[in-house]
Amino acid sequence: MSYSRPADEAAIQAVLADSYKAWEAGDAAGMVANYAEDATAIMTGSLGDSRDVIRESMAMAFEGPLKGSSTYNKQLSLRFVGRDAAIVISESGILFPGQTEVPESGKVNATWVFEKRDAQWLIVAYHNSPVLAPV
Fold it and tell me: For the chain, what is the radius of gyration of the CA atoms?
């Protein structure tokens, strides 16, 4: 059995790239376009329990505190779990207008869970936590 899955890896990378581009454009619908309807997103203090809830939350954030922001993302690993699931671990952070790098205190470790449904890779779960534990 081969563990090399370049086509699937490329498809997952494309989903992430599309999501990052949509964030930079402040496009909440585009950001969640490749999320499953039943996707979950857990971030400090919040739980989005469907694609629609995540989209609505991001739309409000893009009009408010995240207006004009983009993201920093450094993929740390990608591994497949069976034929139709994958986990991506990344170091991420928000770049606010005028910033060229994310301060260490703003970086998070993120877990992205993907599932292949009807030949398409979708984000089914996302979770992040601070890289540095608060003191």
Answer: 15
